[in-house]
Amino acid sequence: MLEDVPRDPFADDPNDPAAALGEAENADPLSSSERQEALSDLADVEVFRSLLEPQGVLGLVLECPECGEQHYFDWDLLRGNLRQMIQEGRPQVHEPAFQPDPADYVSWDYARGYVDGVIDTEESR
Q: What gap in Å lies between CA 97 and CA 100, rounded to an integer?
């Protein structure tokens, strides 16, 4: 089990509102390319965090493909979701961030550009 992932608050609850979504064993396993992409994303998140967290960035903001809204993920939740996706074929059920300050989060593209800028600066030295 994932030690750094918060426990599902509805675990073992017969009235779990997510029960209709089905169990993890019903999830299709990731294809080898999807698994590789998730592993690459996890590595990216670790690099993003190591460079951006000291700058005060709490995590990433991602647009949800299902609802079209912005979702704010702190570093631990994002890492936990990716790990669970790799292990079980789907991300964990989680509560959205409560009143996040958008200034504390950056987009994936911003994080990628920041990392690229740091690498370019280091290489030019």
A: 6
